[in-house]
């Protein structure tokens, strides 16, 4: 059984991203997965909202047996190829000896926006320690920065994590460094990382569903261009 976790707090936020959220609900239903949306129950009002992933994840881990498979996916993620199952598309790249699977994204950073996990004593302890990195509360990458810090400082933690540079497998972007692969229509999903304007995300979802292939400027994600399928 696979459990999909997405933190989504705030009426306006959820409304703006309803197409993204619904794409995961439908995906979970199609494949028989459990989809759980974390709302205000998990909102730690003493921290920026992204940090509320920590109590959300810990709560869900506490309910599941060791070895349970989870996919933690940000709210700004749209499933674009729902035919791809996690068993066939992801598990062959997630060694049984590892507890987390993460990508180095098209911008060259380790990104927690889409990550796969196996429930374990180490995983629960790791997420507890992520929440303890209070020096990073206002870092622009929030809990992602805490994850990077722990993996850089603790070799034993790093041994539990599989890191892949095959980012388009489950963390495709519309922008990236020169030469990096970006989202195409056959990809599993598109993650609107770095796009902080919710209306712009809605626009991007709309054009993608019309069959267009948008591209964003790495320097200014407000700038949208388009390519043809022949340019992929």
UniProtKB/TrEMBL annotation:
GO terms for cellular component: Golgi membrane. One of its GO terms (molecular function) is glycosyltransferase activity. Keywords: Glycosyltransferase, Transferase. Gene3D superfamilies: Spore Coat Polysaccharide Biosynthesis Protein SpsA, Chain A. Pfam families: Glyco_transf_34. GO terms for biological process: protein N-linked glycosylation. This is Nucleotide-diphospho-sugar transferase domain-containing protein. It comes from viral metagenome. The lineage of its organism: unclassified sequences, metagenomes, organismal metagenomes.
